[in-house]
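Hello forum,

I keep getting stuck at the same step: I have a sequence, I want structure tokens, and every attempt I make locally crashes halfway through. Rather than fight my setup again tonight, could one of you with a working pipeline run this one for me? It's a single chain of 154 residues.
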Amino acid sequence: MISPNSNDGGQDFELNLASIIDCLTVIIAFLLLSSSFVSYGALDTAVAAPQTQNASTGSEAQAQALTLSVNLRDSEKVDLELSGSRSEKRKISRASLKQELESMKARYPGLDGIVLTAASRVEYREVIRGMDEARQVFPAVALGLGGGMSGGSK
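Reply #2:
Ran it on my machine without issues. Output:
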């Protein structure tokens, strides 16, 4: 039997964790500070769609310089904002969203994607419903951060 007080050649050591804790503290601080510089403006939610052959026209080159933003303000109101080489803002009802998107697609045939944003009070199912409607017209729908247009939500 070995007694705890016996000195039979075993080494006695003390584990000093202070230096390890110092290193971990520096690493955690670095990770927290560096993560604040990483941000995403939009999340791409596009599903692979079959590509169609389009004749290259001037309106297609113009549409590549355009960005269409759809801001869901609440379950009844939507803001459309076209920016780029042309600028246009509209306030529409939620019920007419698909028709307005089809109208924009007809006017700018090369425009193939939109950025969808929503106010903080919009429910998740409304965002998904808006995204589904937009995908019926545009093959690429990206989810953006924030509430879209400047000018308030009233």
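Helices lie at 18-35, 58-64, 97-107, 124-137. If your local run keeps crashing, start a new thread with the error log.
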